[in-house]
Amino acid sequence: MSLTEEPLLRAVAAAYLDRLCRRREPGAERGVMVGGRGVRLARESAVRNEELFVAVALDAGRAGPQAEALVRVASAVERAWLPSGQVRSGRELAWDEARERVAARAVVAYEDLVLDEREVPIDDPDAAARLLGERAAAALPRALALDEPALVALTGRLRFLARARPELELPEPGEELWRSLLPGLCRGLRSFDELRRAPLEAALAGSLTWQQRAALERDAPERLEVPSGSRVRLDYSDPERPVLAARIQELYGLAATPRLAGGRVPVLLHLLAPNGRPQQVTHDLASFWANTYPQVRRELAGRYPKHAWPDDPATARPERRPRRR
To answer: What residues contact residue 200 under an 8 Å CB cut-off, 6+ apart?
Structure first.
């Protein structure tokens, strides 16, 4: 640029500063304009290398937020020509979509057009947590590990007990509840990666009153102790009927079906053969002992002679594993 060209270029820049553009990359034809509109320099444009330019003649092109306008005539701009009162410097928090994390940037901008930026340490952890929470609220399945088996089991217990004992007024462990818990979960964190490792079980349990937590442990326990002494995990996948799967030998001496929710709901028993496969499914253990067990005993005693097959299972001694005979 010669000394004779500069006054003309300055004048053009001053006239079209509302169309100031910055290249997305050095030497690239594509850029972004004040206001956030994407632009593309015409191939015949003489502005080939300058970082900043104004769009003198602009073809708006197709409508839509992703459409780019074609700059048919452009004029180069030096950063020093920009009015100092309209150039601001500061720090701001932004969401890094590629890394799924909050980042702090030192920014130099003309109006809303970023001229220069670099990542810097975050100096406002509360604001970072709020931004992380906002992004997480819009993408819960990505932000939170809601499919972790232990958490799935806990939510199943809550849904069962809420159905069986509505008077407890238990919260529904759905998206609305998780959004309400995000401010506490996001405290001190910066990214989805950190949030996915957050203690969700503790946060969910912490949303309950102490009366609700006590009822959960008492009326919808994670495990039930069977006569053999084993503590067997319950499956609450079906909120209407929790499942207790145990080997037949471990239930000897149990006369009736265990019940949950203060005795309101019997468990669905999956009675397992010694190979761990269900031999019978019932919610009435007493009926099974009286009517079906004799047939099961005849079928399995020969295949599993090391296991006990007593005549009266309702009063027999349970066994966790076969005893020496």
So the answer is: 144, 145, 146, 148, 151, 185
